[in-house]
Amino acid sequence: MKKRYLFLDLLRAIAVAEMIHGHSLDGLLDSALRSTPFFVNWIHVRGYTAPVFLFAAGFAFALATLPRSHVYSQFSRTLLTRLRRLLFIILLGYLMYLPFFSLRKTILSVGTSGWDHFLGVDILRCIGVSALFLQFWFLLKPKRVITAITIGAITVALPILTPVIKQSEFIQSLPAFIKYYFVDSRFPLFYYASFLFSGFLMGLLYTRLRDFWWKYAVTTAILLILFGLALQWSGGLPAFRAFIVKCGVIILLTVMLERGENLWERLPLVAKYFGKESLVVYVVHLVVIYGSVFNKGLVSYWGQTLSYSEVYLFVLWLFVAMLVLAYFWHRLKLEHMPVANWVKKTVYWSFLIIFLLRPY
Predict the structure, then answer these.
(1) Lower CB density within 10 Å: C or N end of the chain?
(2) Cβ–Cβ under 8 Å, residues 268 and 275
(3) Does residue 1 form part of some domain?
(4) Number of C-alpha atoms within 13 angstroms, CB side, residue 330?
(5) What does the pLDDT read at residue 338?
(6) Could you report the per-residue pLDDT of 83-108, keeping only the tens digit for each?
């Protein structure tokens, strides 16, 4: 059984909890209340949610890969299992934004706003493609120091080059399916993939210097934040400045969670499951709020009409519902893995068959 790192589960739990909070506020709060000081200041805090989720994914990738790099640097059953999982995450990112539950109608929607919404890269696709890049890098069997230098250079380069990519005529001329991975999406690879890569680099440091990593991590975080503030004073490199400040804050948060892991172990088990089952919580809460090809989300019924008190009553209800979901789904996998796998395969194949054959 793979070792669980509680601090990473908690880091994911924090990100998913803020996603539930953020999507609820964004989707349901009355438009007249969006100019209040609370909402305006919260927008800045919300900017950390996706980067935390990406950073945790990169850190987890490092912890799962580096101790067994010989397994993931050659073709094996373990490697194929990982590739299937990453491709499933990418596929899930597309399925969540299908314009219609029908292949025929989806193809006929090419060129419409619904098609563009479908192709726009979400956080799941950003995670999946970024992790695939790291996995293919390991197939080259590089030395660890070369890995650190190369991934570090890419991590820095992506946010620096982001403004250039956004204005590139070549990128804009690419087929939409490819273009959206670079521009005009909520989570394009340029800029956002750097958070996953920075998490990977911190994970690399953690595996090499388990007892002392936090000292180097805290020093790195402080230097990043100070450098970011200096860039803000000079007014240069806005995307890179935002990246290094957020990255510094996230590293400090990760260190705090890792250093206090003994304290967090006393938390109720259900709180830990929230982070362990972050994927299912992420998908279900989005379906509830924004809807899917199967249902209308609450945004369709309520719109941006709720007061703060009404929104937070809903947030409380959704938190409880997602905690219960995470707990029971985890217990199902833990105690009845064949049943859980059967449920997943049944849902997957049923969805695929109906999607391919449904004419309307």
Answers:
(1) N
(2) no
(3) no
(4) 18
(5) 73
(6) 989 999 999 888 888 888 888 888 88
